[in-house]
Amino acid sequence: MQNDYILLQEKVETFIGYKMQTRRHFDMLAEIVFTYTKNMVSATTLRRFWGYQEKEGGVSQNTLNILSRLVGYADFTDFSNAKGSSDESSSELLGEQNILLSSTLSIGNQIHVTWSPDRKVTLEYIGTETFRVLESHNSKLQKDDTFYCSQFVSGMPLYCNRLLRPGIPTMSYVCGKNGGINVKVIN
Fold first, then answer.
1. Is the distance from CB of 79 to CB of 38 less than 8 angstroms?
2. Nearest-CA neighbor of 83 among 161, 4, 14, 149?
3. Is the pLDDT assigned to residue 94 strictly greater than 90?
4. CA 16 to CA 36: how far, in whole Å?
5. In whole angstroms, what is the distance from residue 136 CA to residue 30 CA?
6. Is the pTM of this model over 0.90?
7. How far apart are CA 146 and CA 121, in angstroms?
8. Who has the most CB within 10 Å: 99, 148, 163, 186?
9. Element containing residue 147 per DSSP (H, E)
10. 55/53 Cα distance (integer angstroms)
């Protein structure tokens, strides 16, 4: 069970794009949890779950379920059962032809990213592994959103870290969770 907790913590940190290290991180995570799940989990509860604050009893099933929903599972039982499935535990070596490294792009380069079903975004590289959304079709990404991404891997999900949108707390977003993305440099 403890390993499930650690794995859930890692999944949440991957989702939001940073390691939980400061009180402010836990405050921001509480806001992100509410934004995505419409359920409240206090920053204090989150600090206890990560071991940054003395635990008074165990972590509630409700908290585990909410955090599991945040990272794309129905509940904590679904999360625990999925961790042993082949798609969660398998490894894969990728050929260079499948990877677009942000470090190989020049400022102003545009890339086209697509994923199922019928999602399309056009991104502009603005430097330091940062992208701005120029166009978005059928995606939750919006024009002028910015995010960090070090690499795009064809056939794998795209993790948009530190997604910035006016009026919304910093978050992360995953494109192409089922089936991955296709990416193409267009200029």
1. no
2. 4
3. no
4. 11
5. 28
6. no
7. 12
8. 163
9. strand 146-148
10. 6
